[in-house]
Amino acid sequence: MIRTTLAALALASAGLSDGAYAQTIIAQQPLAGTRLDISATGEVARVPDIAIISAGVVTRAGTASEAISQNATRIERVRAALARVGIAARDIQTSSVSLSPDYIYEERQAPRLSGYQASNQLSIRFRDIRNSGRILDALVAEGANQISGPNLIIDRPEAALDEARTRALAAGRQRAELYARSLGLRVARLVAVSEIPGMRGPEIIVTGARMQAADAAAKTEIVPGEQQLSITLQMSFELQ
Question: 19 with 54, same domain?
Answer without folding.
Answer: no
